[in-house]
Write a structure and sequence with these properties.
This protein is mainly α and 116 residues long. The chain is built from 4 helices and 2 strands, in the order H-H-H-H-E-E. It has a two-stranded antiparallel sheet with strand order 1-2. The protein is elongated.
């Protein structure tokens, strides 16, 4: 019975690690796609800053992937990989919408408190 629970826990860790890594890769690719001027216009630091942060986040996410996919340093780098996920989430929820709006991709969408 305990091996079933252990296998389930391992499976959950692998799935969550792969999802986190995918999120980091998506954020990095999106950050690279936008022009440097859009970041400045949106007042969200610079493109180099965000790409650098997301490169480090993606590298930590890859290192944290369990074997046989990655190196499997989840136990020793678990906190750092969590920081990488947070960096990607901040980019995707705060920076990306502002940069897209500066590129004219906002599509005129608006929420209850105005355009977003």
């Amino acid at each position: 019975m305990s091996s079933i629970v252990g296998n389930a826990q391992q499976f959950i860790v692998v799935v969550l690690s792969v999802i986190a890594f995918g999120l980091e890769v998506y954020a990095l690719v999106d950050a690279i796609r936008h022009g440097a001027g859009a970041y400045v216009a949106a007042e969200k630091r610079t493109k180099g800053f965000w790409v650098g942060i997301l490169v480090v986040a993606t590298a930590l996410g890859f290192i944290a992937l369990p074997p046989p996919i990655g190196a499997g340093f989840l136990n020793s780098l678990g906190f750092l990989s969590l920081i990488g996920v947070v960096a990607a989430a901040v980019y995707l929820t705060d920076v990306r919408p502002a940069v897209q709006q500066m590129r004219g991709r906002g599509g005129g969408r608006s929420g209850p408190y105005g355009p977003y």
